[in-house]
Amino acid sequence: MSKNFWRGLLCLLAFFITLPFSVVQSDGPTKDARFYRQQAMAAYKAKNYAAFAENLEKALQFTPDHPTLLYNLAIAYALLNRPQAALQTLATVADMGLIYPAEKNADFDALKNSEAFQAIIKRFAGNRAPLVKSEWAFGVEEKGLIPEGLAYDPTSQTFYLSSIHQRKIFAINRQGEARVFAEESQGLWAVAGMKVDAKRKILWAATAAVGQMVNLNREDEGRSGVLQFDLRTGKLLKRFEIRDRAKKHWLGDVAINSRGEVFATDSLAPALYRIRPHQREIEPVIEGEPFVSPQGLAFSSDEKHLFVADYAKGIFEIEVTAKRAIKLAPPVNATLLGIDGLYFYQGDLLAVQNGVNPHRLIRLKLNDKLNAITKVDLVEANNPQFAEPTLGVVVKDAFYFIANSQWDLIDDHGKFASLEKLQPVRVLKMKL
Questions:
Q1: pLDDT at 29 (0 to 100)
Q2: Is the whole model's pTM more than 0.90, yes or no?
Q3: Which terminus, N or C, of the chain has the lesser number of Cβ atoms within 10 Å?
Q4: Who's near 427: CB < 8 A, 6+ residues apart?
């Protein structure tokens, strides 16, 4: 999925506040979160702090759980000599469990001697504490893969791991031995999310022609689709490619229901797609609004609910028949932004949230009707083995996930910043 331009903490935080969120039509420029953020930054540079605060407040109407906008609003209030508002807003960010360098920011100088400010700084420091519940599961020794997706076949007890850069899918057996299951010569582009349909003995994999992969034909860049493999033979059975070439696409994750329907998220266009059984084409379910950058998706156990994580807007419940996406409100003092992988387990959603600092795993508690998020629990954060965790898979009562995708080491031309820093792939497991 289209990640490199938001990979790395600073890039991620900046990306959040430059995305085109839901729009409000007007005779002038589109009045969306991007517009108000740009107005806020211009006001800050002009030292017009009242306009700085006003525009941030308007931007937050689109994404009220946006931590960087909240952090900047705390700065605005401090500069306007509104200490209580500044401290309250900054405390909200700290309560989200995130890390921001407020103690080093000169804009907070007027507050730094207060006990309340120092208490908030201690809370930010506490958010740096490691919370580690996972352990080593298996690895792939090859370096420079930029691993992204993970799937599991319960019949053969085989894991499948995808590579963005090397355009491969690896199969890892129960002994932890890895072999190449599929590769570039079979027509793979960068491979992202995958799912196993054990009943039909099929592996589904999202693929896209992107700058981070080797041997990119620039004429293919922006093409994307879903691949269907025979698990028994490794043969590529069918390729479902998005026909629209007017826009660039990047299908990043997939989900399957018991009827064999496959759903995939497009983080660039943006859109949600579906492949029906015995269908020859991939078809859009929802295109454009309300999505900005849809990523992970998961069905509830009864398959009556399909959830999609939009990296820049939060969690949506999808009414497939009505082709409608309903945004689920975040709980107080929690953010649902920056979620990559999304998984359903025992009535809750488990999420890999790599778009905030620190990268972490969280559990979203749902109500009995599965139409509201009531609480966000921190599951794991500040694990020393993390180098941007990405996707995973639930296997019985355990969650397996890629711990070190290393997206921050590659640019959008497929060049590595430091070959010496590249690591073998680590897959961790956590008892749920």
A1: 62
A2: yes
A3: C
A4: 137, 138, 139, 140, 150, 159, 161, 400, 401, 402, 403
